[in-house]
Amino acid sequence: MPNYPGLSTPVGHIEPVPRRIRALLGGRTVLDTTRAVYVWEWPPYPQYYVPAADLAPGALVPSDHVDEQALGTARRVGLRAGDVSRPAAGHLHTGDVVPGLAGLVRLEWNAVDAWFEEDEEVFVHPRNPYARVDALRSTRHVRVEVEGLVLAESATPVLVFETGLPTRYYLPRTALDHTHLRPSRTVTACPYKGRTTAYWSVRVGDTLHPDLAWSYDFPTRELLPIAGLVSFYNEKVDIFLDGEPLDRPRTPFSPAGE
């Protein structure tokens, strides 16, 4: 069974961010910087660390709480924008262990309402500069089954190749057997593709398989070829490519116990 462990940039690695980074809270810009750095706290992707001086005046609310973290001592800070307050929004680093972090703030992703790289909104976490996502139209024949039931079949898929994940197969909605699909209220987001607009579970007899398929009606500009198409979790369904069955990959999306 294929295994997709992700990327392997070492923890503590620091690089400058070549893009303007902004963050909004309560409708106000609380952060606007061209001096952010990427810091890898774990291998798959980095976090933004930004100069405290590049937060809006009065936005940073210091506290007396000091935490000992893997990358050094850091003072807990809050955020304020008008009447909106986010306590424990992040940490201001001293640089006692990693000197390059002195005076930099690491904000929790959900401490603000929205993040932007230049004028493009970023979802979930910063994009890894070493990751790549490509959406390619194809004429390969794709069939999707669960418990032997054919859910979709198409010879006009769009294949999405994303670093650290198995190839995803996006199919036209007209290629799906909708009699077994049940709409779900689940919404997820991806830093490379955007926010999903639909999810479906699959009912086979008395068994409901939750959240097997999803769609992006308004993906990011780079992934426009997948707009309105539907993909299934390779980890949870059986996919046949040009008639050959694919192994189910092992990823963080695999069912528990597999």
Model description:
There is one protein chain. The chain is mainly beta and 258 residues long. It folds into 2 domains: 14-122, Metal Binding Protein, Guanine Nucleotide Exchange Factor, Chain A (Beta Complex), CATH 2.170.150.40; 133-245, Metal Binding Protein, Guanine Nucleotide Exchange Factor, Chain A. Helices cover 0% and strands 49% of the residues. It is built from no helices and 24 strands. A 7-stranded antiparallel sheet has the order 1-4-5-9-8-7-6, with no helix packed on it. A 7-stranded antiparallel sheet has the order 12-15-16-22-21-20-17, with no helix packed on it. The chain starts with 13 loop residues before the first strand and ends in a 13-residue tail after the last strand. The model has no long low-confidence stretch (mean pLDDT 93).
